[in-house]
Design goal:
Length: about 375
């Protein structure tokens, strides 16, 4: 048999098999294989979510919040026998999180999510959305595997499951055609080949980061060391006792802690609490790495210069251009009189470099450290 005939046969086989895979997947969708299928927890099975004989429900929040919202609604679900009375479960009020000022727009947006839709979005003008069903597959999710069953866009009908948290986030915050104008592609920012990046997909570019607090370390050497982090180490509920996941927060940026991004605020533990979770405040203000950290962050005590935020110099995600996550805040930093705007590091860990820029009228043409 010639190669081309073999090839055609293979193609025909593929054309027959692919739709079958699709059907299998659709059947799989109806199968209740996860936590919600445990009849000792949800004795009425499908009816906990599918009312009457209607299988066509949307992935929107109302269905879920009957049990995952406030306790009085949940009490009604218990009384009606949808949840076992005795079950001593760890319920969280997701609705309360979603009502916080910084949130995923689950409650605000409806009618946009489509069953079995494929993300990342490919249409430029598609409306943005996030529903419970975009991040949780109700039939398949398990305890400690809350996005089990969520799949990534693939070739044809073949779809690989999301296994890492960042893959879930990239479905809407990376190469989506409908990213908001002010947003950036997160996959680009966290790319392990960047000059610097917070270590999400892989250990960081810098092998020794002096300010890191235990158990965080640039390289995993001892069993307890943590050298990679998740989006959720920075994005999520403001309350330590709150539910896991980026549902909502009182802090700007949907952050787990406060992070002052404006310039001209005085330094204190709370102002940069997010960073001080992992980076020792005394190391940063003690100038253990950048010799002018304290001078910039704390200012000179005058009203004219109270101090500036980490955000003026650092990107919290990553930088393809610079080491040390350097990315100047374009709102306050501009090119110097000679037209230069640049950070240059000398070597990898020399603690020497230079900055060419102008900030609040102070010229660096360039200034070296
Ligand atoms: C915990 C809630 C929950 C339970 C329990 C549940 N489902 Fe679903 N089901 C959903 C949601 C939500 C969707 C819509 C998903 C989407 O649009 O993203 C859905 C969609 C479906 C679909 C696809 C409908 C379509 O329009 O594509 C079928 C079929 C289905 N479920 C069958 C079942 C069967 C059969 C059971 C019981 C064995 C069951 N489900 C139990 C929540 C549930
Ligand atoms: C009839 C009540 C009920 C409904 C409706 C319901 N759930 Fe659940 N869900 C539960 C119970 C009970 C648990 C197990 C809680 C536990 O073990 O702490 C659970 C667990 C979960 C978990 C895993 C939590 C963990 O601890 O990891 C997620 C995520 C979840 N549900 C999402 C949803 C979504 C999304 C919907 C809507 C499509 C939904 N649920 C609808 C009752 C419900
Ligand atoms: C189904 C799509 C979708 C997924 C998946 C998703 N997001 Fe979002 N996210 C949105 C939308 C829509 C917004 C509203 C702003 C916008 O359009 O980007 C948003 C906003 C945000 C914001 C900004 C909130 C604010 O108030 O400034 C953060 C932070 C965020 N998401 C983090 C995450 C993280 C972390 C993950 C993964 C765990 C994730 N998102 C997964 C759709 C999604
Ligand atoms: C959950 C822990 C965690 C938080 C929160 C955190 N960092 Fe980091 N940071 C790390 C780890 C781990 C590294 C080591 C990465 C490496 O080895 O390159 C690091 C490295 C850095 C670096 C050096 C990167 C390089 O390539 O030299 C800078 C700068 C930095 N972080 C700034 C910040 C700022 C600013 C904040 C607050 C917005 C912050 N970090 C919050 C864990 C954290
Ligand atoms: C070290 C802390 C940290 C980590 C880890 C982190 N972020 Fe952020 N993120 C921030 C901060 C601080 C802001 C607000 C400042 C800004 O916009 O740069 C932010 C802003 C955002 C925004 C809103 C701005 C925009 O561009 O739309 C999104 C979305 C987001 N992050 C997604 C993610 C995703 C997805 C991950 C994981 C792949 C992640 N972040 C990991 C600290 C972090
Ligand atoms: C943008 C994505 C996204 C959306 C939208 C979303 N979740 Fe989550 N959810 C997550 C992630 C991520 C986690 C935590 C995963 C982890 O770290 O274990 C989580 C965790 C949970 C948990 C477990 C909390 C805990 O502490 O154990 C429940 C329950 C839950 N979500 C229910 C819901 C419900 C109900 C909705 C809609 C009203 C919803 N989620 C919308 C991403 C999302
Ligand atoms: C004026 C600009 C500027 C400001 C403001 C600034 N940094 Fe830096 N930072 C730098 C430079 C430049 C370096 C690189 C020093 C070197 O060459 O090693 C650096 C290095 C770092 C490092 C990596 C080395 C280490 O110390 O572990 C961390 C982490 C860091 N900064 C955190 C912060 C935090 C947190 C804040 C806010 C509280 C902050 N920086 C504010 C310019 C700044």
């Amino acid at each position: 048999m010639s190669n081309s005939r073999l090839c055609t046969k293979f193609l025909i086989l593929l054309l027959v098999l692919l739709p079958m895979l699709g059907v299998a997947q659709a059947k799989q969708q109806g199968k209740l294989t996860g936590l919600h299928g445990d009849k000792t927890i949800l004795p009425k099975s499908c009816r906990a979510c599918h009312r009457g004989m209607n299988m066509r429900i949307s992935g929107e929040e109302q269905t879920c919040l009957r049990c995952h919202g406030n306790s009085s609604e949940r009490q009604q679900m218990k009384a009606a026998g949808y949840i076992t009375q005795s079950a001593d479960r760890d319920y969280r009020n997701i609705e309360a999180e979603l009502r916080k000022p910084y949130n995923h727009p689950v409650l605000e947006i409806s009618g946009v999510h489509q069953p079995r839709e494929l993300l990342p979005e490919e249409l430029v003008n598609a409306k943005r959305h996030a529903e419970c069903g975009d991040c949780h597959e109700a039939h398949q999710l398990r305890k400690n595997a809350p996005y089990r069953g969520i799949s990534k866009r693939g070739v044809g009908n073949f779809r690989a499951d999301v296994t890492k948290e960042y893959e879930l986030c990239y479905k809407c915050h990376a190469d989506s055609a409908n990213l908001p104008a002010a947003s950036t592609d997160k996959r680009e920012e966290f790319r392990p080949t960047n000059r610097s990046f917070h270590p999400i997909e892989a250990e960081g570019a810098n092998s020794y980061v002096i300010s890191l607090k235990s158990p965080y370390r640039a390289r995993k050497e001892q069993p307890g060391d943590i050298s990679t982090i998740g989006c959720s180490d920075c994005h999520g509920s403001d309350s330590n006792a709150g539910p896991k996941g980026p549902h909502g927060s009182i802090y700007r940026g949907l952050l787990v802690d406060n992070y002052e991004m404006e310039s001209g605020r005085s330094e204190n533990q709370r102002a940069y609490a997010l960073c001080y979770r992992c980076h020792e405040r005394s190391s940063i203000l003690g100038n253990e790495s950048f010799p002018y950290h304290a001078q910039h962050i704390q200012g000179n005590g005058t009203r004219e210069f109270a101090g500036t935020s980490c955000f003026s110099c650092h990107d919290a995600h990553g930088s393809s251009a610079n080491q040390f996550l350097i990315r100047f805040n374009a709102d306050i930093v501009e090119a110097n009189a000679a037209g230069d705007l640049q950070f240059k590091a000398v070597g990898v860990a020399s603690r020497h470099g230079s900055c060419a820029l102008s900030c609040h009228g102070v010229e660096h043409e360039p200034k070296s450290y």
